[in-house]
Amino acid sequence: MRWSLACPSLLLFAGSLGGGIAPAQTRAQTKPEAKHTIAVTQYEITGVVVSGIDGSPVPHCRLTPNLVVHGGSGSRRFPASSDGSEVDDHGRFSISLPSAGAWNLRASARGYVTQSYEEHGAFSSSVIFSSSVVLTADSPTIDLRFTLSPEASIKGIVLDEAGEPVRDAQISLFLVPPPSPGGPPSSGTRGNARTDDRGMYELANLAPGGYRLSVRAHPWYAEATQQSGPSVPDGSPLDPSLDVAYPPTWFPGGSDVATAETIVLHAGDTRQADFHLVPIPAIHLKIAPPAGAVGAVNGRQGQAFPIVEEITPGANGPRAVSVATRRDPQGEFDVGGLTPGLYQVRTPGQEGRSTMVEVTANSVGTLNLDAPGSDIARVTVHVDGFAGDTEESGDRRGRGLRVSLIDTDTQRGTFSSVGDEGGFAGRRGSRTPATDRTIEVPPGRYEVVLQGVPNLYLTGITAKGAEASGRYVTVPAGETTLTVHVANGRANVSGVATLDGRPAVGAMALLVPTTIEEPDSIGFLRQDQTNTDGSFDIENVIPGQYILVVIDRGWQINWGDRSTLRRYLTQGIPLELKPSASVKQNVIAQAP
Amino acid sequence: MVLVCALWGGEARCPAQIGGAAGVGTSIASSSTPDLVSGRVINAATDQPVRRALVRLNTRAVLTDSEGRFRFEQNKESSANILVTKPGFYATAEYGDAGNLYLQSAQLAALLELRIYPEALLTGVVLAPDGTPLPEIWVTAMRRAYDDMGRRWVPADQRQTDSHGGFRIPVPAGEYRLQTRYSPRNSAIGEAVLPVAVPSGGASNTSQLIRIHSGEEQTFELRPVVSAIHTVGVSQSPPDRGFLRISARASNGGTVQVNSMPASGDETKIQLPQGTYTLTVRTVGDTDGSELAETTVTVPDHDISGVVLRFSPVPSIPVELLIDSSSSDTSSTGLAQLGLNLQSEQADSDGGFASIGLSPRANQTFFFSAPPGSYRLVGRNSGAWYIKSASYGDSDLLEQELVVAPGASGIPIRVVVSNQTAALQGTVHLNSDPVASWVYLIPNRRSAQLVYSTRSSSTGSYSFDHLPPGSYQAIAFQRRHSVDYRDPESLTPFGDRAQAVTVNVGDKPTLNLDAVPATEVIP
């Protein structure tokens, strides 16, 4: 089974992997109604929790079972009771459960990573694979060996250019997953921390894996951080040594993610990662006020101050930055305290007055909110084939279709169709189908991802003024139009994997489009992990031609080379998935 | 115009506006504007220079050098607002004071010595009874703040414990109480962590407060009770109040706020850890129909039901204003101008002091809606009017506490005001020079207003125009000095500078004072 991480920023990526819907699904392979055949059945999970390093029992471990129930467009977990169960001194546990079903079993112990059974958490930044414990009337009990990984941690200190501690610096931790069978994996945040009065931070309870760290902070003495006293109508000149900012800094010290070191953590590791921040001259962005907004929005001056937000990689939308905004006598705004990067500028209360701006070290000129910059791509998105509210599956919760452009190559950001507010969509659920919306992005190559209507899928893209290929589109600066062709009826594939006549537990199930190596492929690789009864379930698949393979211990394979996958595909089972098909297919697991 | 708003990690932090504090010094007729403003920034606790401190002179700013020195050349300001900032330091440890200095040209011309105060640190660890460190527990530092009306608790800062249960809360020097927030399900132990406080909840004795000085670190080990939570079925009499917000006070004074869950049948369900609690629920009616229910419940190691909340009206105490017969004028004051409120020293849900203000009725009358308990009535002068006496039945509310009995209603509080006041004036000196300072008058007899304060001008002169006649202790401080002046010990360290004075109706005697210098008051 697989779970999306709760972090909303990652749901978009989960959507791209999972076929365009946010929550991932798991189906209880065996239905609970089997219980009527036996009058009283004791459902029970027993076992031992051991350390992933030496196999020694883990004492004081708590286990929490949650019933995984499939329903609607997603699955939910229901706690069995308010309490979990604690292991004995030898790491043994015995949990009585009220019913059959697929149970997610989660273990937490001090000094260990909190994990589900057979969890492979470091393999994707967006979803976590683990095995459900499946109990049925025929096999109401199971005995498990639950391996927990000792927690790793990263700690460090953030110092400024004078060697003094930086307080309230924001540390972001990004997972760098190993290569996956589906191609280059995406990175995503896995934690945050804030430095204390000593400049120190700690990121604890980390699973083994590769990580990158970035820090965001402001010089405490800088003009944008300090308040600037009473109004300064003449805008007294700033002392250049105080008009500085810290660029986003990746460990060990560069401002470019390409220079970031991947910190490899093994179980139980503690790594020190210190930062020495170096200020750069702050960049000022000049913004001409939108026409009609000068000094009189709702009759109150000052209402129309532009809001400048930074687009950060891995974040779920723009985030507020610390800026100092001045207004000169001509009404032009001067936004100080910026570092090079991509920003969204919008005017509060003004519909659609939003634009994207790339700020560089020698940015000059004035941003005009009425006339978007020539270096930004304005993409008008037209959706073809979406029937909106009339579809049975569509928009029951009042949520419409959302089209997002995801910069999967550089992971610079996720850009969604602009909502009513001029900000990122999603805040205000749009009741009308997302047709003819405009998305502003930096020029480049993007993956087109549909969200909001689970059953809908992409069938193709045609572009005017841009280049479309498969799920991808390359947009130049200026105006372009995309027509996104969609259809209804995603398919499901489920089955049981066996190895030597027994259930293959915790194996990697892959559903690979036959077109995977073609650049214009619409379909993409889907993945699941088998449960304790060997069952797997891959839902919401784009119809098409696929090859199904299940690989025992597939998590240990180095997927860095494309040819690795080819080797397994030759022994896979070809499947043709028609729209809305539900295919059951049992598989013999392959050896790794 | 300049708009600065630091938004960081979603948390809005708009720094206090400079220039907001009262600083009405009459300016000395200055002959010349100094071309150079310079000086040093000094750590007030160690007398060592502070490097890389930001000194702001109106809109200009500069960092101090390695010797703590700063220079503003080509100065054009004849008077200036000066503020020093540095992480780990406060420009003043006084609550509610940003620490701005307002200097005239003569003062700007001198070599400035700007003293800043290192922060104090409240650190420690939160542990379960078996010693398991408890992560993700919010620890709040509540600061005791004093003003003319009395004392109260204000939250200074709050931090979450780390994976080792540790916390560090930097605060200004002062008097504190540390408390943890209720956590219904802690990740480390899977159980509820009850609130705990230092000093413990019931304590109102000031000697038990955490007193911490600039540059000092005090470490605490907080051991909250942990317990599994259980469901408690609650029914209401009379029924149908729907959603309830209930505060459950444990025997140690810690309070758990719980929300009711959707009702099934006639009972509302709430979740509480094992233990004995006083449940308090208060409803707010449309007018003064507020109702209160209080009951005691003991939660065993399993779910229970059958707890009944019996609601009764909150006592409503009318307040009447009477003019003292000797008052001269016809135009009087109104009750609303007297800042009347009832202060309870029983720790409320936030561990602070509950304060109940006047509630108005439609017909221009006022009342206190006060749950049963003991309160102290406080108020302030309004223009020329002062509260001469206040009574509730036989109780003199200036000397005694107001005791509200359950079901008490109808008996009024009678407040007598008078405008037959005295006055006082004088000059404050420091080392024989007149100096701007804060002057405090502490009444010897209990009064509705606990202390009278004013600022002397930069020429040192001060004036109180309306004082209740009587005897006072008078003292001046160079910097604001807010403490509990009801405590006789508060003036002991400055004994020789405090002076006794008696003022009579219609008099305006002169009393000159020697200020306590800022260097003598290390917070």
TrEMBL record, chain A:
Region span, Disordered: 175-194, 412-437
InterPro entries found in the cross-reference section: Carb-bd-like_fold
A Pfam short name: CarboxypepD_reg
MF GO annotations: carbohydrate binding
Bilayer-crossing regions: none
Signal peptide residue numbers: 1-24
Keywords attached to this entry: Signal
Protein's name according to its UniProt entry: Carboxypeptidase regulatory-like domain-containing protein
Native organism: Tunturiibacter lichenicola
Lineage: Bacteria, Pseudomonadati, Acidobacteriota, Terriglobia, Terriglobales
